[in-house]
Design brief:
Blueprint: H1 4-13, H2 25-33, E1 39-40, H3 43-49, H4 59-72, E2 77-78, H5 89-99
Parallel strand pairs: 1-2
């Protein structure tokens, strides 16, 4: 089975490609329908949907948002995780399990 990670790597191998930044589920689905081959989350765009400035979203909010974006399409998703680094190895594993799940 080809994973989203495999598809993302093959896009890099084939040269330059455009990776737009959806800020919600609707824009993710629209961009997929327009034929884009990969998406990237936008920290500033997501923060704006919450009425906040960039860098004012916490890790759990980012992970929940990324889970929703990942579930909106089957496209590979590159994540702009802002400054939401975990404080320890256990936190890194939680983030990886939630945000980088290759269920698509």
């Amino acid at each position: 089975m080809t994973t989203a990670t495999d598809r993302f790597r093959s896009l890099h191998d084939s040269g330059i490609f455009v990776m737009p930044n959806p800020y919600d589920l609707g824009s993710a689905r629209l961009l997929a329908a327009l034929g884009y081959q990969a998406l990237a989350s936008t920290s500033a765009g997501f923060a704006a949907t919450l009425g906040r400035l960039d860098m004012m979203v916490n890790r759990d909010e980012v992970l929940t948002h990324v889970e929703a974006l990942a579930g909106a399409t089957d496209l590979p998703l590159n994540v702009d995780s802002e400054r939401c680094y975990a404080d320890d190895a256990a936190g890194v594993r939680v983030g990886q399990a939630r945000a980088a799940g290759d269920a698509r």
